[in-house]
Each structure stands twice: as C-alpha cells, then as structure tokens.
Amino acid sequence: MEPIRVHFPGSGAFHLELKRRVAEYFEGVQISPRDAAWMYLKSAILLSWTVSAYLLLITNSLAWWLTPIAAICLAVGMAGIGVSVQHDANHGGYSRNRWVNRLFGCCLDVMGGSSYIWYWKHNIVHHTYTNISGIDVDVDIEPFLRLAPTQPLLRYHKYQYIYIWFIYGLLPANWHFYADYRDLVNSDIGGMPIPRPSRLVLIATLFGKLFFYGWSLILPLILYPTLPVLGLYLLTTFTLGTVLTTTFQLAHCLEETEVHVATTESNSVEAGWAEHQVRTTANFAPRNRFLTWYLGGLNYQIEHHLFPKVCHVHYPAISPIVEATCKDFGIPYQIHPTFRDALSSHVRWLYRMGRLEPVPVTELVPSA
C-alpha cells in the first residue's frame, strides 16, 4: 500500500518569531529549558507514590476492601508517570543528557508499553500530522469510534459519547498484549512506514514486556488466587487508560479544533507546521495548579506541541508568549478555562460525530 504523504511549507514568519521570543525568554531568565530541579523532585514523588501502592498490594498489607483503592492509587501514579516523566523524557525534554532521557523514558516499558513504538507513533506521526485523519492514529480508531467527519458513520456511533469511556479504559491492555506487537511486525503506523528496530532495541522492547508481565501478573498469580489478581489488573489498567486517553483527547478532539483529511494522493497543508499545531490543538484549565502539576503540563497542549523538547514545568511561563504571538499573527489560540469545559466540548464533538449532522472539515490541498 502506497504511504500517504503530507507536505508542510517551510518555516514561516510565525514559527520563526515564536522561536525567537521563547528563546529570548529563556536567555532573559537564565535557566535551561530542560534539567529542571522541580522535574526531578516531581519524578521522585510520582515514582515513590506508584511503588508504594504496588508494595501495599503485593505484600497483602491491606484489608481486602482497601485493595481496590490501592489499585486505583497505583493506576493514578502510573498515569502521572505516563503524562509527566516518560512523556518529557521520550520527547527529549527531560534532560540535556540523552541517557537520562532514555532512562526515564524506559518508565513506559516498565508500565507495559513500548518506548520505541511510542516514539514513532506519538513523537513523529501524531506530533507532525496532528488531527490529520488518515495518518494520525489518535483520531483513527475505526470502526469502534468516529472522530472525524469523513470517517464512515455506523449505526452504533450515535451512542459513542456514552460507550467511548469503556474504549478509552481498554487502551493499556491493548498496548500490553496486541498493538505494540502488531506495529513491530507491520513496521507501519497510520499508513506511515517506520524502520524495523535493531536487534538491541528489539531485545530491550521484549525484555520490557516480560518485566511488565512479571511484576503485574506473574508474581501476583504465584502469590494469590487468579480471579482477584485479574480483577485488580483490569481495574488498574482501566483506570490508567481512562486518565491517559481523556487527557490527550481533550486537547485535540473538540468542537473548536480543526480536523484535516489526507487521501492516498500527495497532499500539502496551506498553513505552516507551527500554525497547524495551534489550529488543531487546545489548552484547558490553565489556572488549575494541581492539574498542571499532575498532567505534566498537558493542559498546555499548544505549548507542548510547539516546544516538545522544553520541559513541561516551563509551559505556564511561555504560554503568554505563545498566546501573544498567535494574536499578533491572527492565529486562533483556543483555551477552555476549566477541565469541565473541555470535557463538555469533547462530549459534544463525539455526539455530533455519531450523527449525520454536517460538520466543517478542512481538506488538504493536493500538491502539484
């Protein structure tokens, strides 16, 4: 199958000016965009939280009725690591030291994912072709969900705004047992070919999977009855998937963000890459300090997409710079003031996508 190709014009005035202003900010305050002390402290807190919850479960230190609460605490800790620690590290935004990034990036492998697949699926495909249906796998979850106007409309999609939360919760189990292996074998993500891993990377990826199976299932199954172990696994992974997927979807699958469509023909985007990121992304709850801390700054998703190699602890500071630059260039900068506002917009978008109501869509322009 011929891969879909999409072309962006070269860096325009907006992108160049934006980079200049943000670089000027870091020079002015004389701090590094990475290796933030607060990030290392935060990592220690989240890792301690997660390990403590696991030890409480594996050592049977709690009354039986408290074990589901501990499993949820384990999931919440893992989600915090996912959106903060491994996310920054696998983007290269945690440290200037490549091996520090690699070390903390392996947290994803310990949690049952694959940092190798994540790099290509998230860093390359999603961050380059954001909200382009036909390439960005985050908006191509067919046939279960319809997240773009050009995708086939099936009868049961009218209920997707209700059942989608069940689909979101199954995401980690899909990573653990199917999707990562499929992508490794096919060497293809969203119609975009990815290189086959080297022997060392493949061994490291499979070792990460085995290590995850060991601590999450094999050891508990040796120590405890099967049904409680499987039940706690499902509770933990379902909670983890709900938190992770909702966080990412509230930034892109909304009424206000643009959706583009790619075809098998060669396509080009009229807006430059940076402008495309702003138009397909939205921030939410910027004044909620707890969410900003816990979600790894992903409520400042516009800043993250524009500067993925900047540690997320700096997003609140550079956000006014990005917003002002967007205003100067006439580019809409979307913000939902609260988490509830963003969630409501997401649900309304799901509701509309599940019906035949016409929705505006930006088609890519065929290249000459």
From TrEMBL:
Residues 64-334 form the Fatty acid desaturase domain. The chain crosses the membrane at residues 39-57, 63-87, 99-119, 161-179, 200-224, 230-251. Keywords: Membrane, Transmembrane, Transmembrane helix. InterPro entries: FA_desaturase_dom (IPR005804), Fatty_acid_desaturase (IPR012171). The keyword Transmembrane helix applies. It holds the Pfam family FA_desaturase. One of its GO terms (molecular function) is oxidoreductase activity, acting on paired donors, with oxidation of a pair of donors resulting in the reduction of molecular oxygen to two molecules of water. PANTHER family: DELTA(5) FATTY ACID DESATURASE C-RELATED (PTHR19353:SF19), FATTY ACID DESATURASE 2 (PTHR19353). One of its GO terms (cellular component) is membrane. GO terms for biological process: lipid biosynthetic process. This is Fatty acid desaturase.
